[in-house]
Amino acid sequence: MWKHIHIPTDLALIGLATLLAFVLRDKMPLSLVIVRPGFELYVFATLIASFVCFSVSGASNRIWRYFSFVDGLRLILVVGLVVLLAWSMTFILNRAEGIPRSVPLIQWGLAELFLLAERSGIRCASAPHTVPETVDPDHPTVQGELFNGMDDIAALSIRCAKQVSDNSIAVVSMLNKDQKLT
Length: 182
What we know:
The longest helix is centred in the middle third of the chain and has 26 residues, at 69-94. The model has no long low-confidence stretch (mean pLDDT 79). The chain is mostly helical and 182 residues long. The chain has helices at residues 6-26, 30-34, 39-57, 69-94, 103-126, 152-164, and strands at 143-148, 169-175. Helix 1 packs antiparallel against helix 3 (39-57) and helix 4 packs antiparallel against helix 5 (103-126).
């Protein structure tokens, strides 16, 4: 059931990207963009192409596991296919009258931005949040270090670490010049 909730969200974001593409291209108020000839047909073709492409590719289903680089690439390809199909359907129906040539490119960029941001946000929100451990001053943790070679620099490092760390660093072992434990 949960996998079907993201298809309407994806359709809404792609519809918003289409609307904003027209607004950005024409630099007109929204009320004038909506009555523009060819606008409704292009939005309808975009939503139909989006529904078909997202349903067939399963790009909306992957959001519930995690969002990886491969999912991002798949999303880029699916949105490109949506824009291409919407432009093709509009061109076949009315030769894309009233639709500037730059609108599909702006739409593609905005749709990618919105969908990748949505999925990245869901991934960040669902990531486990780690709480840093509190250090108990009565029982400090001891960290072990392994030094490779005992020379002046290693001796200086050991002295500095012991002085700064309040005895929370213990030298576990050292390797001599023959790579044998001492």
